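JOB MANIFEST
job_type = single_chain_structure
chain_count = 1
residues = 309
[input]
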Amino acid sequence: MPRLADLAELVRAPAALSVPGDVVAGAAAAGTLGRRTPALAAASVLLYWAGMAANDWADRRLDAVERPERPIPSGRVAPGAALGLAAGLTAAGVALATAAGGRRAATVAVPLAAAVWGYDLAAKSTAAGPAVMAACRGLDVLLGATGGRALRAVPAAVTVAAHTWTVTALSRREVTGADAALPLRTLAGTALVAAGAAAPPLTRPDRRSRAGTGAAPADPSGRVPRRGPAGALPALLAGWYAARYGAAQARAAADPRPGRVRAAVGAGITGLPALQGALTARAGAGLLGLVVAAAAPLGGRLARRISPT
């Protein structure tokens, strides 16, 4: 039987701190924050861990050459045990999502699970790899939005998906190293992601507000910008995300050897909660956004013990 520490390394346990914020951001945007949100977030974590275990099973021969210290090639976890764990976690994740959110949640959880396995078994080494992984994270955000106005969560899903594309593109070069152009491209993408998350949040105006009453002018959707501290919080959290992840990418651009690229990938994973917090705060849940963002430094500290990549 593998040790718990070996299984934690297999599924990259600390990286799971970057997962619940997807569901929370989606639920906040769709107006479905409630008692079922923690259960959907837990289901998302189970599916994430399933993907990590399946990833190492699929890469076991390659890891024997490039990363012999990983749990499977080092002999600490048997390939069959890793595959069984991945299958069990997938089934548990889909079942929990269905129990918490019913048929609507299942219609997202099943494609999400399929996308996770599709990435690990087929897409990862192809040109479509970053796009498939980005789709996984986008679906994760939409999982939180099920049962509400899901269309309102689409911008948040696209934002998280774009971030994931940058991390995945970098991860493909964390063993061999990259040319400086790659981290520069992903850095530009990060700047756009942060700008989108920091854009002034919008809210429905009071029905009594009319032209000439002093209310802020509405945009064509009938919304008006929020003002005051609540409006500044998304920008602050998005700036923190950009500084944290962007600095690591800038260092990789200056020195694109494997260690720096791997560090940038780790920063992208552990820094994601800051972006999720910005999106949650942008949807009007400022305090919850701060709670979500707090997972970023915690994940960074835990990543020193167990690599998130």
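[summary]
The beta strands are 202-203, 224-225.
The CA atoms of residues 30 and 149 lie 5 Å apart.
exit_status = 0
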